């Protein structure tokens, strides 16, 4: 699937006497802002703006290149427990891992994403893309709220749920999502929870 500034290429290579015509499915608008500038001007990305500044990712997101930012909205940050959010925001490495988990190494427009695709993040982890009806899903969840916001150095998709990588989780958080949850109950009963957090 070929896209031009996220417009889908419908018919290619119509040869004319003075050139070639490619038919696309929408009008291409002028793109003037970098990904960083989109973050700075969009009200729904206020928390992300602060997180990016705290992790020194500003220069990356305004540099030349082709990235995809899965931008967590304020709503996405509000969905996780305040204690968990404060811990991540206060841990520079966990915060950097969290944000890099939301950045893809190449620009991926929604039209060009094929269900069943595995995409690699800057953190080195992968995200699985699928479909739920007409909606795109990330790791099985239809969380893309607004797609294909074009930037001079890539594309931004707004997501309404935070994608937290394992490297940004405590041992307790990891264990609660795994097959050892019963063991965690024993640690709690023994008064050892603090060691896992």
TrEMBL record:
SUPFAM superfamilies referenced in this protein's UniProt entry, alphabetically: FAS1 domain
Domain FAS1: 1-28, 32-163
GO cellular component terms listed in the entry, alphabetical order: extracellular matrix; extracellular space
InterPro entries documented for this protein: Adhesion/Biosynth-related, FAS1_dom_sf, FAS1_domain
Gene this chain is encoded by: Tgfbi
PANTHER family the record matches: PERIOSTIN-RELATED (PTHR10900), TRANSFORMING GROWTH FACTOR-BETA-INDUCED PROTEIN IG-H3 (PTHR10900:SF82)
GO molecular function: cell adhesion molecule binding
Designated name of the protein: BGH3 protein
Species whose genome carries this gene: Centropus unirufus
Source species, domain of life: Eukaryota
GO aspect biological process, one term: extracellular matrix organization
């Amino acid at each position: 699937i070929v896209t031009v500034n996220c417009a889908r290429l419908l018919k290619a290579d119509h040869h004319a006497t003075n050139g070639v015509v490619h038919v696309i499915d929408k009008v291409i608008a002028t793109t003037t802002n970098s990904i960083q500038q989109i973050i700075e001007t969009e009200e729904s990305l206020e928390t992300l703006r602060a997180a990016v500044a705290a992790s020194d990712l500003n220069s990356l997101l305004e540099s030349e290149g082709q990235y995809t930012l899965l931008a967590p909205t304020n709503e996405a940050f509000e969905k996780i427990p305040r204690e968990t959010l404060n811990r991540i925001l206060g841990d520079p490495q966990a915060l950097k891992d969290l944000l890099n988990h939301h950045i893809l190494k190449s620009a991926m427009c929604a039209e060009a994403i094929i269900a069943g695709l595995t995409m690699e993040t800057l953190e080195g982890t992968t995200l699985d893309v699928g479909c739920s009806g007409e909606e795109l899903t990330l790791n099985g969840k239809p969380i893309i709220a607004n797609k294909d916001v074009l930037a001079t150095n890539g594309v931004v998709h707004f997501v309404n749920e935070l994608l937290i990588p394992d490297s940004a989780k405590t041992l307790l958080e990891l264990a609660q999502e795994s097959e050892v949850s019963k063991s965690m109950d024993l640690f709690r009963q023994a008064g050892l929870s603090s060691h896992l957090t």
